[in-house]
Amino acid sequence: xxxxxxxxxxxxxxxxxxxxxxxxxxxxxxxxxxxLGSLGSGMTAPGVLNTQIDTIxxxxxxxxxxxxxxxxxxxxxxxxxxxxxxxxxxxxDNTIEYALPKCPAQNFSDxxxxxxxxxxxxxxxxxxxxxxxxxxxxxxxxxxxxxTANHPLExxxxxxxxxxxxxxxxxxxxxxxxxxxxxxxxxxxxxxTLIGQTRACTDIPLIAAGGIMTAQDIKAxxxxxxxxAQLGTVFLTTDKCGINDTYKQAxxxxxxxxxxxxxxxxxxxxxxxxxxxxxxxxRDFAEFESANALPPYPQLNAMTKFMRAHASQNMDxxxxxxxxxxxxxxVKQESTNxxxxxxxxxx
Length: 347
Known about the structure:
With 347 residues, the chain is of the alpha/beta class. Helix content is 41%, strand content 14%. The strands form 2 sheets. An 8-stranded parallel beta sheet has the order 1-9-8-6-5-4-3-2. A 3-stranded antiparallel beta sheet has the order 7-11-10, with no helix packed on it.
């Protein structure tokens, strides 16, 4: 059975989760159209997540996906590094108040419990891998499980524990890298190479992600061996997306030649590699880019959020994390349904 049939989809389009950017309304719109709408919930408190799941269920009777970030208890409870001196000086120079939280991220165990208590059609996971027992428990509730991989060995690991599919994320992808093995960082693979190498070591169904912006891109990854295509950046400038106007305008400007469309992989915002538009923050603090010089994820993410909040309030795109894939020059200001119709018309 094809993944399209397994997930009960009409079109081979998955809307990427993109924590902090997606909304229940966006997910439901894509699902109602016949694709797989997704909600990036890794940064969402368990109680809010439960409410958002109920909201999506009220807006669509079609399959949808909830995405969580796999973090250990040590990772989501611990801040054991100092605020970097350069960041402290930036806060002082710009009179930005900050107070580090007790925990740098949401409790993953509590978030996962929400999916046990309020089952969803599809659950996907990034930044790590869950156990075979957790996969089985979700499957027993009627939930399909999708892993994320930047390297063939990560995809095989998901196949080995019984996942229903793996989203293979090429180096072109915007936002955070989903892998967790050292190989995924030491030799980042382009999407077509990643699909080919993954196909050679496992027959688990694949969803392709990374730089996919057009119907032609979707057809290309299907020819390469993926069954579905996951698109993220192209949805960011549509009406149902939840990003702020400053971020959205920066993406539009990049597509219209009013700012550079150059993207960079950086750790400077969160401590974990992520791709976004190059801006003043990435330029001014580039000397600190080394993993050894920065607090790890999610600690640095908790430390820089005050800068990002200040930038958002002041419509300052130069100190926002402008996550975007390498296809950002092709974004358009349109409704979510207009985008979906345009894609399907050309498939």
